[in-house]
Design brief:
By secondary structure, the chain is α+β, with helices and mostly antiparallel strands. It is 28% helix and 22% strand.
Length: 282
C-alpha cells in the first residue's frame, strides 16, 4: 500500500497475484510418437504411427497452474559430472491448455484429441516456449487404466472451471444486490433492526393455565399392556372342546324326567276325579 502525502489522490492497493500450482496426475510410463499429418477429417489413427518403435519412453506429469492445465512430458538423460549410470530428468515436451467456454477455439479438443481407433492413444498439441512453434505428437499408454486416468484428469479440470465460473457469477449477483439495497436505503446509512416485541408480564398481570384431569389421554401402564397383549406363541390357540357326555348317565337322566312327568300327570288326574265325586262320599 502506498500513500501520497500532500495530494488529493486516493490510496491504491497494489497486491501481487498469487499463482497456485497443484499436481493432479503423475504417470511413470508414456510412449511418445512422431505422427504424420491427419489423412482424413475423421481424426487421427494410431495404426499410422508405427507403434512398435516409439520416439521416446518418458513420464507424464499433469499440473494445474491458476486457470491453465500443464501437461509436462519428462525424459531422462545422463547427468553431467556425475558417476556413470546417473541420470537426470528434463522437459521433453509441454502442452499448456487454457480452456475457455466462451471461445470455440479454446476447447479441450484443441490441445488433446483421442484417436478414432483406440482408447489408449491421443494426439497432443505441444508448443515450443522459445520459438512459439506448435506441433502434434502422439502419446500412448501401455495400461488402459493409465489412459483412463489421463482422460478423467482433463475432464475434471474442465468441470472445475465451469463450477468456478458459476460461483463467480453468483458472487457478482450478490454484490449487485447489496449495491441495489444500499442505493434504496438513501445515503448508505444502516437501517436499524426491528425491535422485538416485549413478552414480559406487566405488574399485576397473571397467566391462567387449564390443566385437564381424567379427561385427558391415559397412559398405558406396563402391567395393563401386558394383560392386553397375548403371550408370544399362544395368540392362535383356543380352549379345548368339552369331553363327550356319558351315554348311560344321559339315559338315566331322561328316564327320571319321564317318570316325574308321568307321576305328575296321574296325580293331576286323580285330583280332578276326586273333585267330581267328592259330593257323593258318605
Amino acid at each position: 500500500m502506498s500513500t501520497n502525502v500532500g495530494s488529493s489522490s486516493t490510496n491504491e492497493e497494489e497486491s501481487e497475484k498469487v499463482v497456485i500450482e497443484q499436481r493432479l496426475l503423475k504417470l511413470d510410463e508414456v510412449f511418445v510418437y512422431k505422427i504424420p499429418a491427419m489423412k482424413t477429417a475423421d481424426g487421427h489413427r494410431a495404426e499410422d504411427w508405427n507403434l512398435a518403435t516409439p520416439l521416446a519412453t518418458c513420464s507424464l506429469i499433469v499440473n494445474r497452474r491458476d486457470d491453465s492445465l500443464c501437461i509436462n512430458i519428462m525424459a531422462e538423460r545422463p547427468k553431467a559430472n556425475a558417476p556413470p549410470g546417473a541420470t537426470e530428468s528434463y522437459l521433453f515436451a509441454q502442452s499448456i491448455i487454457q480452456v475457455k467456454s466462451d471461445q470455440s477455439s479454446h476447447k479441450l479438443e484443441h490441445w488433446v484429441e483421442p484417436v478414432v481407433d483406440s482408447s489408449r492413444y491421443f494426439a497432443m498439441r505441444i508448443r515450443d516456449s522459445r520459438t512459439g512453434r506448435e506441433a502434434f505428437i502422439g502419446v500412448g499408454f501401455r495400461e488402459r487404466n493409465d489412459a483412463t486416468n489421463f482422460r478423467m484428469t482433463m475432464e475434471d479440470y474442465v468441470a472445475a472451471l465451469k463450477r468456478e465460473e458459476k460461483a463467480q457469477v453468483l458472487h457478482q449477483q450478490f454484490e449487485q444486490s447489496l449495491e441495489h439495497q444500499s442505493a434504496e436505503g438513501g445515503d448508505g446509512e444502516e437501517q436499524p433492526l426491528p425491535s422485538m416485541s416485549n413478552l414480559s408480564l406487566k405488574e399485576g398481570e397473571k397467566i391462567h393455565i387449564n390443566i385437564k384431569g381424567n379427561g385427558g389421554s391415559k397412559r398405558v401402564t406396563p402391567a395393563a399392556s401386558n394383560k392386553q397383549t397375548p403371550k408370544k406363541g399362544l395368540a392362535g390357540l383356543r380352549k379345548p372342546p368339552p369331553p363327550p357326555p356319558d351315554v348311560d348317565a344321559v339315559a338315566a337322566k331322561a328316564y327320571s324326567v319321564e317318570n316325574t312327568v308321568s307321576n305328575t300327570q296321574e296325580k293331576e288326574e286323580d285330583e280332578e276325579e276326586g273333585d267330581e265325586w267328592g259330593d257323593f262320599e258318605g
